[in-house]
Design goal:
With 327 residues, the chain is an alpha+beta fold. The protein has helices spanning 20-23, 51-58, 125-139, 191-207, 227-230, 258-271, 277-284, 288-298; strands at 44-48, 69-77, 83-91, 104-111, 117-123, 172-188, 274-276, 299-301, 320-323. Strands 1, 2, 3, 4, 5 and 6 form a six-stranded mixed beta sheet that branches. Strands 7-9-8 form a three-stranded antiparallel beta sheet. A hairpin with a 5-residue loop joins β2 (69-77) and β3. The protein is extended and about 80 Å long.
């Protein structure tokens, strides 16, 4: 039995018909947005909101058009003569999900954000039309087998339980929707209001807590006359071994992302107006040089406050920091 030789196809010959998977497969080309004066997708805003606020927004209906609040933007003149943009957000009080979060927020603007893009996906045209026909048939009460073309029955391979089952993914078309040019750090205006709401949520969590039994052990009965009952007092009190002093380990800190560090710094200054560098380093557990570099962007050095966090009155002026008026 001789093998059939493989004949190379001629350049002018018609190609073989495409498989269905190849027909609806994405070519891999990434589309970019069109930056025009009327299409401002090249200067998007990325807002970092508190976790409680994001949780309340996630409970809203996605399909309903709801006005969650209003934004106010103005410009303040800096000492060097430049105009600094300022923004503030006020939430609507008639929404039930806003009753457990502060209503007024300051938005600290950071410009010059690089390498941040927003992507979007949509169904491929061929797959979308095919799916729409099935949806219309289902809505009209027609069985789906009418839309399927009759094909010759082929012998299917036996099902192997060791072979994992997977469902074919819906082919998508990826596109860059826009570029992020500004970051907004969201912080409540009134720290006392936020502290009061957090205390109310903590109290509610304690009231709704239930008793949980970690382990069940049956009691032991000492019978009179047994050897175990005779020497019960010898093992009643056991001397604890002297604890060994642990060796001092040099504290090593790992840098976290700068955006996450900014969020933690804003949370600290929402609790107290003044912080010493020593207290911030103990609170955030970050290297001093990295902490100073980040503080220069959102905080300014100030005089020693009488109600400083660490209560130390002999702290140097350059070690005491205060949040800017934006917070």
């Amino acid at each position: 039995m001789s093998d059939q030789p493989v004949v190379k196809a001629e350049p002018g010959a018609s190609p073989l018909p495409m498989d269905e998977d190849d027909l609806y497969e994405d070519a891999g080309d990434l589309e970019f947005f069109e930056s025009t004066p009327t299409n401002q997708v090249g200067s998007l805003y990325l807002a970092r909101v508190p976790k409680a606020l994001w949780k309340s927004w996630s409970e809203l209906d996605d399909d309903a058009e709801i006005q969650i609040g209003t934004l106010r933007q103005w410009y303040d003149s800096a000492p060097d003569g430049t105009m600094k943009p300022r923004m503030k957000m006020l939430l609507n009080s008639d929404i039930a999900q806003h009753q457990t979060v502060p209503r007024e927020y300051n938005l600290d603007i950071t410009s010059g954000v690089d390498h941040h893009f927003v992507f979007t996906e949509e169904d491929l045209p061929g797959y979308k039309a095919k799916s729409k026909a099935r949806t219309d048939a289902s809505n009209n009460g027609l069985p789906l087998h009418i839309l399927r073309a009759r094909a010759e029955k082929v012998e299917k391979p036996k099902w192997d339980k060791n072979k994992p089952y997977y469902r074919k993914a819906i082919p998508k078309k990826t596109k860059i929707y826009g570029k992020i040019a500004y970051e907004l750090n969201c912080a409540p205006v009134h720290a006392e209001e936020q502290r009061h709401l957090l205390q109310a949520q903590t109290s509610e969590a304690f009231r709704s807590g239930k008793l949980q039994i970690l382990d069940r052990r049956n009691g032991q009965i000492l019978l009179t006359g047994t050897g175990r009952a005779a020497d019960w007092d010898s093992n009643f009190i056991k001397s604890q071994p002297k604890p060994t002093k642990a060796k001092k380990v040099e504290m090593k800190t790992i840098r976290i992302p700068e955006s996450e560090l900014m969020d933690k710094i804003i949370q600290c200054f929402s609790r107290f107006q003044y912080w010493s560098l020593k207290s911030l380093r103990a609170e955030l557990k970050q290297p001093e040089a990295y902490l100073r570099q980040t503080l220069e962007k959102i905080a300014t050095p100030g005089d020693v406050a009488p109600d400083a966090v660490d209560g130390d009155s002999d702290v140097e002026d350059d070690d005491e920091v205060k949040m800017e008026d934006a917070l």
